[in-house]
Specification:
Shape: globular
Helix content: over 70%
Strand content: under 5%
Radius of gyration: 28 Å
CATH class of the largest domain: Mainly Alpha
Number of domains: 3
Structural class: mainly alpha
């Protein structure tokens, strides 16, 4: 008992230390868990040994991951992105799997089934790593970001048939086709039954549980549903994760989706971390070190080959070279589900230990180098984009034409809800404006009289010059993320130092950064929202409206430097007031 507790203590100590280091250097936690598994496993320091009990427990990490993927699965979203998801995503996975299968078969003499298993595994990319990096770089809604997320969505969906296919491939040649047909039939019947019953029962179950107003009962009901559906598909001879995916998909159509997602996140993250620890425990560092040249070759084939496939598909989809390169770099690594599939192929004896060790090592190494590769290619593609005048000549010309007749106008960077509201105020005052946005839907939106909306990004000097920055009376930056806003502020200040620059932000966490970048004033939405809520609350409690608004003006006078005299005068006229504590 004490020995087990000591092993658990060492595992937790190593995990806390490695995850802390990963957070410190802004690396995905998955890499920390894999490193811990390598270190404490039987091929490392040997603190822990592989066991069926640990592996079975860790498998529920994949179950909860698939449940989370199901929660994010939306038929309307899939329909809106069907061309990108099934076209781009399907081409990437098919070409990568076939290419890897050919290399494995012709270059290494492996059976075609082993080649297909390895190909499907390496075709998967890391949703956890890529989504985190794109979010931090504020590129989720860029063209390359949307393409990447569409491909990742297809890969997530493709895991379901892969989990059915690999066990069928492991059957003897004479039984393989029959096994595959039986597995597909069983999957169709079981999934059809689960979907039919789930649509009728899950909402009622959650309605009944929610009526009890017990958070504990709600979490227990969610765990019961996840484990129950996983057991149902497991009892039918299918993957446990398959039932969990269906459960998540059904719950995603209900009003309880976000609460369920929040409740299962701790279980998912901890169990998934344990799963990746067990994957790391499988890696034999001595074997890999002895075969280091083969590892480097496998890593080069994986990253280069997969990157070239994505690059070719992106160029075929009529992307510019800089966007195609970004997309290729973002998808050139292996992923979480690839680790699941390569582990399943090994346990089903589709591949031998040598192939498993080299492939697993190359997949892990590709995930370690992914952040560096994405950053490096982003810089290279950015330099290419700045020099690609021929490709952008038409867009620049359209901006010049739109802003040619404007003088003393306002440049609005970002034409979302905030940008549109600002445009209406300017139009009511007869002030001309030119709005820039990179979303085609926003560019096509209705525009008030006296203004124009054109496609363009304010972090490009040629775009700002074409928009008439030299003649503008003010610049409003209404981007939803701080990173893009800061880049735009610095670019405006580089071209013109005297123009007022007003920036909208979600909260006050980045005010100092934006002020240092050159913003004249920064307006945090959370402050304005809280002031209005506070004023309304005071009014509802019987405090005179004028007194409530006086307190609001006092806070604004303290907060906004350029309007301080105006608000101070209003506060003085309305009576003495002090900011609320």
């Amino acid at each position: 008992m004490h020995q087990n507790l000591l092993a658990l203590l060492l595992l937790l100590t190593a995990t806390v230390a490695m995850v802390s280091l990963a957070r410190r250097f802004q690396l995905p936690s998955i890499l920390a868990y894999l490193t811990v598994g390598i270190a404490v496993g039987p091929h490392g320091f040997g603190f822990m040994q592989e066991s069926s009990q640990v592996a079975a427990f860790a498998e529920f990490g994949v179950v909860f991951l698939m449940f989370s993927i199901g929660l994010e699965f939306s038929l309307p979203r899939l329909k809106a992105m069907r061309g990108l998801v099934f076209g781009f995503g399907g081409a990437q996975l098919l070409l990568t799997a076939l290419g890897t299968g050919l290399v494995t078969g012709l270059g290494y003499g492996q059976d075609w089934r082993a080649g297909l298993a390895v190909g499907l595994a390496v075709a998967m990319s890391s949703t956890a790593i890529v989504a985190k990096l794109l979010s931090e770089r504020f590129e989720l809604h860029s063209r390359s970001g949307r393409q990447t997320m569409g491909v990742l969505l297809f890969q997530d969906l493709a895991v379901v048939p892969c989990l059915i296919l690999l066990p069928a491939l492991a059957r003897p040649a004479g039984e393989m086709i029959n096994a595959l047909l039986v597995a597909m039939t069983e999957a169709a019947v079981v999934l059809g039954a689960l979907i039919w019953a789930g649509q009728r029962l899950l909402r009622r179950v959650y309605d009944a549980v929610a009526a009890r107003r017990s958070e504990e009962l709600f979490v227990l009901a969610t765990l019961w549903i996840v484990v129950g559906l996983a057991y149902a598909t497991g009892a039918a001879g299918l993957s446990l994760a398959l039932g969990a995916f269906v459960g998540g998909m059904l719950i995603s159509e209900t009003m309880y989706r976000h609460q369920v997602e929040a409740d299962i996140r701790p279980f998912r993250d901890i169990l998934l971390g344990l799963f990746f620890v067990t994957i790391g425990m499988m890696l034999d560092l001595r074997f890999v070190t002895a075969q280091f040249d083969k590892l480097l070759l496998a890593l080069a084939l994986l990253v280069t080959g997969k990157g070239l496939v994505v690059l070719a598909v992106a160029l075929a989809a009529r992307n510019s070279m800089d966007i195609a390169l970004r997309t290729a770099a973002q998808l050139a690594q292996a992923g979480e589900f690839g680790l699941v599939l390569i582990g399943l192929a090994f346990h089903q004896q589709l591949i031998g230990n040598d192939v498993f060790q080299i492939t697993l090592s190359a997949m892990l190494a590709s995930m370690f180098v992914a952040p560096l590769l994405i950053e490096r290619v982003a810089r290279l593609s950015g330099q290419m984009a700045k020099g690609d005048w021929a490709h952008k000549a038409l867009s620049i010309h359209q901006i010049v034409v739109a802003g040619f007749a404007l003088d003393r106008h306002v440049i609005i960077c970002g034409y979302g809800r905030t940008g549109r509201n600002i445009a209406r105020f300017l139009a009511d005052e007869g002030i001309g404006f030119l709005a820039l946005d990179v979303d085609p839907h926003q560019v096509q939106a209705a525009t008030p009289a006296g203004g124009r909306v054109v496609f363009g990004s304010a972090d490009r000097p040629e775009v700002l010059k074409a928009a008439g920055l030299a003649r503008a009376s003010a610049v409003v930056i209404a981007y939803p993320d701080v990173h893009s806003a800061e880049r735009a502020v610095r670019m405006v200040r580089r071209e013109r130092a005297d123009v007022p620059v007003i920036v909208r932000v979600a909260d006050d966490s980045a005010i100092d950064k934006l002020k240092q970048a050159g913003a004249t004033e920064v307006i945090p939405e959370v402050l304005e929202g809280s002031l209005m809520i506070a004023a309304e609350t005071l009014a509802q409690l019987g405090v005179p409206v004028e007194r409530a608004m006086t307190r609001v003006r006092a806070v604004r006078a303290e907060r906004y430097a350029s309007l301080r005299h105006h608000y101070a005068g209003d506060a003085g006229a309305g009576g003495s007031a002090s900011p609320p504590s």
